[in-house]
Amino acid sequence: MGYARLSKTHTYTAAVDLAESAYAIARALPVEERFALSSQLRRASTSIAINIAEGAGRGGDREFVRYLRIAIGSACEVEALLDLVMRLHSVDRTLAMGLQNETRTLIKQIYKLEHRIESQRDTPT
Fold it and tell me: Domain tally for the chain?
């Protein structure tokens, strides 16, 4: 699955949307967090979409699945970072909790995509 096809999938667009929302929360953090939580939240959130795209461009199902698993790890990192952000800073909790829910939904979508690829790979031709 190349990037052109991938960019039209719901999973990829949801990952890009999530990164955009994470950037909004990161911008709301205090300036002293610019190189700490803010930076880490931006990097982890963009890593999700980037790993999905890179895996799709690798040309093989095994590599794609490997990159999907990395994307799941990055999504879990986003969840943990949002927990820290809500505990340590006064951010819009509704926005942060909404992003956590988006992240959990995205993790499920990536797992479904991974399982679909794995089942197609295991099916004899």
Answer: 1
